[in-house]
Amino acid sequence: MTNCIFCKIAAKEIPAKTVYEDDDLIAFHDINPAAPVHFLMVPKQHIPTVAECNESHAALLSKMLLLAPKLAEEQGCGYAVNSDGVGSGGFKLLFNTGPNGGQEVYHLHLHVIGGPRPWRRSA
Ligand code: 5GP
Ligand code: ZN
Question: Which stretches make up the HIT domain (predicted)?
């Protein structure tokens, strides 16, 4: 998609601080982080919003959701449960969708936001 900033990042036409990449997706730090850890998981395929996904995107969406906790862990905001069952750490996963969802970039992306609170904004 011409003029899509995340397509350009995926194509390496615009630089980004990449934390993960494979054939299907790229993850990179948000340029305006809402929290100590804030990165975006972006499919290389141009899909405008999660509302435009269908069954053909099931494997891609599943991959993103299953990978997110692993990347969060690598980036220092993983969730852990101790032997008493008490959780610590953790993160927020967020798909802003459409104008009322606060979406600004219309190329599907999953925000992964974490680190010690308070956070500057909710993304
Ligand atoms: P949205 O509001 O669409 O869910 O979030 C878009 C996010 O993309 C924002 O948090 C914004 O800071 C981030 N962003 C916008 N342009 C760029 C860019 O060129 N590079 C990076 N790394 N992040 C960007
Ligand atoms: Zn795009």
Answer: 5-123
**Distance between Cα 90 and ligand 2 center (Å):** 29
Residue nearest to atom 24 of ligand 1 (CA): 31
Closest by CA position to 90, among listed 63, 119, 64, 62: 119
d(CA 21, CA 10): 9
The rounded radius of gyration (Å) of the Cα atoms in the chain is 15
Q: Hey, CA dihedral for 9, 32, 89, 77, is it positive or negative?
A: positive
Report residue 59 as tokens: 């494997």
DSSP state of 17: -
- Residue 88: exposed, middle, or buried by beta-carbon count in 10 A (0-12, 13-18, 19+)? exposed
Task: Check pLDDT > 80 for residue 90.
Answer: yes
- Tell me the two tokens of residue 102: 């606060």
pTM to 2 decimals? 0.97
